[in-house]
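User: Show me sequence and structure for the first protein, then do the same for the second.

Assistant: Starting with the first protein.
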Amino acid sequence: MNILDRIIAPTPKFFKKVRTVGLVLAAVSASILAAPVALPAVVMQVAGYLAVAGSVATAVSQVATMAENPEPKTEGDGN
């Protein structure tokens, strides 16, 4: 399965929630970073980390797919 197929494939319910949380984190951090008021350096640094974490969570959850034909593995299968 190539990356385009993964992006188009249906996303599991859990990863849809992770994607939403990631988007919210990225949006909140972007608004903090773009604030016209002077904020402490530690707040700006944390906002930068939240932006990265939100972006990564969103990207990873977007390419998670449901298995089409899950095959349970048991001991003694030879696999």
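Switching to the second protein now.
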Amino acid sequence: MTPEALIDIFREALAVIVMMVAVIIVPGLVVGLIVAVFQAATSINEQTLSFLPRLLVTLLALMMAGHWLVRTMMDFFLEMVHLIPSVVG
């Protein structure tokens, strides 16, 4: 196994991780920003007001993208399994 092959595998793994995490985190960040602007505009400093919408949006994102997330992880895993002979041999 060459160092270039290892770097390519690592790069692809990082790309898959970043893509999957972004699908979960970005909606929560957007909602958190909207709630923060609303809180700043109205001077409401309630902690649950900032936490609950982010939690609900994150859970909703997991429910909506769950199938895609699992499929992406399975495809990456199967690709890694198919690469085992070329990596070992």
